TrEMBL record:
Highest classification ranks of the organism: Bacteria, Pseudomonadati, Pseudomonadota, Betaproteobacteria, Burkholderiales
Keywords, comma-separated and alphabetical: Cytoplasm, Pyridoxine biosynthesis, Transferase
Oligomer and partners: Homooctamer; tetramer of dimers.
Enzyme class: transferase
Protein name: Pyridoxine 5'-phosphate synthase
One GO term of the biological process aspect: pyridoxine biosynthetic process
Keyword Cytoplasm: yes
Length: 260
């Protein structure tokens, strides 16, 4: 239906980890993380995500502070999302900077990449006070969770505002005979989140090809945070054209146009 009210499309938060990863291979300060943020936000991205891991393999503390200052000064409507393990270094950033959102991720210090969500039956009581502390500072809390509909309500029980569905299993199945099964898993997890009064974010290995099918199958996703594939695309197309392509994929999923 043309001209009718469009549902609010999902917000795009660009994860800049991989810009910092390349920058760290020389002592020249390029590619610039803050310039990447500026160009992505100028192109229409809704926010910036960083995951300052304890080993500082990519995003470092100075990057987090510089991005926070940039968004506060030049992009007050953009959201800043800081990811990390609250039992490692994440809470220091939450207390110092009070970002719009923090995403609790249960990664070990040397983990290759994020590859699982929280086991709240085991860790729920431990994360609960840290969630309460972050919220008392005015920071929205999202918990990185596997797409398990039975586990999602526990995120509400420990005080989270949102869950971020860990989407690698879907991304790995995309384009195969297993895609439908994965989409049903994620749709059920999203439904469980909505039923529990939780907002739904999503991320990990999403790209402009697999994104529309996901957003059509999982209604009401508030934010996708995308880094690795988006930055890889930007190496070929540039930040602006790449962000526009991802926004177009989001709008296509919201019924704003065909896939052709
Ligand atoms: C939590 C998650 O899935 C990603 O946001 C994470 O930041 C990826 O970390 P790397 O960029 O270090 O692989
Ligand atoms: N939370 C997911 C994220 O920020 C980026 O993940 P990826 O797109 O780098 O896999």
């Amino acid at each position: 239906m043309h001209g009718g009210p469009r549902v609010n499309p999902t917000a795009l938060s660009v994860n800049l980890n991989k810009v910092a990863l390349v920058r760290n291979t020389r002592h020249l300060g390029i590619p610039s993380v803050t310039r990447a943020a500026t160009l992505c936000l100028q192109a229409g991205a809704h926010g910036i995500t960083v995951h300052p891991r304890p080993d500082a393999r990519h995003i470092r503390g100075d990057d987090v502070r510089a991005l926070h200052a940039l968004l506060k000064k030049d992009w007050p409507r953009a959201e800043f999302n800081i990811e990390g393990n609250p039992f490692h270094n994440l809470m220091d950033f939450v207390r110092e900077l009070r970002p719009h959102q923090c995403t609790f991720v249960p990664d070990s210090e040397g983990q290759f990449t994020s590859d699982h969500g929280w086991d709240l039956e085991k860790d729920g009581e431990r994360v609960k006070p840290l969630i309460a502390e972050a919220k008392s500072l005015g920071v929205r809390v999202s918990l990185f969770m596997d797409a398990d509909a039975r586990a999602i309500p526990l995120a509400k029980a420990v005080g989270a505002d949102r869950v971020e569905l860990y989407t690698e299993p879907y991304a790995a199945a995309w384009g195969t005979t297993r895609q439908g099964e994965q989409l049903r898993r994620f749709a059920a997890a999203g439904q469980a989140a909505h039923a529990a009064g939780l907002g739904v974010n999503a991320g990990h290995d999403l790209n402009r090809d697999n994104l529309p099918d996901f957003l059509r199958a999982v209604p009401g996703v508030l934010e996708v945070s995308i880094g690795h594939a988006l930055i890889a695309d930007a190496l070929e197309m540039g930040y602006a054209a790449t962000v526009r392509a991802y926004l177009a994929a989001i709008h296509r999923a919201a019924g704003g146009g065909s896939d052709q």
